[in-house]
Prior knowledge:
Blueprint: H1 8-12, H2 17-30, H3 33-37, H4 39-49, H5 53-80, E1 105-107, H6 113-126, E2 131-135, H7 136-148, H8 152-160, E3 164-170, H9 184-195, E4 200-205, H10 212-216, H11 219-231, E5 236-238, H12 243-255
Parallel strand pairs: 1-4, 1-5, 2-3, 3-4
Amino acid sequence: xxxxxxxxxxxAGGNDDDLIVRLRRHLDFLGLTHTLQxxxxxxxxxxxxxxxxxxxxxxxxxxxxxxxxxxxINRRVQTSGLVERxxxxxxxxxxxxxxxxxxVITGKxxxxxxxxxxxxxxxxxxxxxxxxxARCVDLLDDLHAxxxxxxxxxxxxxxxxxxxxxxxxxxxxxxxxRDDEPTAAHTLFNLIDRRHGKFSTAVTSNIKxxxxxxxxxxxTLATAxxxxxxxxxxxxxxxxPSYRQRVASQRADKRGVSLPDDSQA
Length: 265
């Protein structure tokens, strides 16, 4: 049966209009939207290639699966919190010759830390993994707000659930410090501890790891956070120039303006 060739001329001809209408109705009911939208192109391909029945069905289903997989990737990206679709292919590795392969990512602002993690996040979505992305201050603000409106348990479970959690820009932005609330270190520790040994967590830091205690408000808990992150982490330290400074310099050059040399600061 698989060796028989399909005659799609009659199927697409005027005498079989009712059959095409029913076929479209079936595809719509089954939710095979890509095949429904591409039905004429499928008929044209079958007329040209003359595949067997099994080959025609496999071709149609493969196209449908590819379309649905792309839709699922897009949904994961949309719900992840990623605003930009950074890719590993677009990262300028030659501009950072000091980047080693030793995964908490540290480095000065503008060196590409966020680009790398956003690219990994996009790749995770493409591999079928769930993802949440947030800047550190935004994540902490969300959990502190949850304490005020009694949604803390629900929100921390939502943050603890994804296969991959990206916490971007630790050390960038001011964390809340109020006497009637837990420290940022306590809040972040509770989240990391829930995820420890179960899911992947990736972090970028604009400050030295030894300065986390001061930034988060508790040196002991900051050490505990780093211990849990480091146990299964790849460590990347980017000791290189700033992309943003390079772009700013290029724009200034076009305008004939000189910028101050940050390396002398």
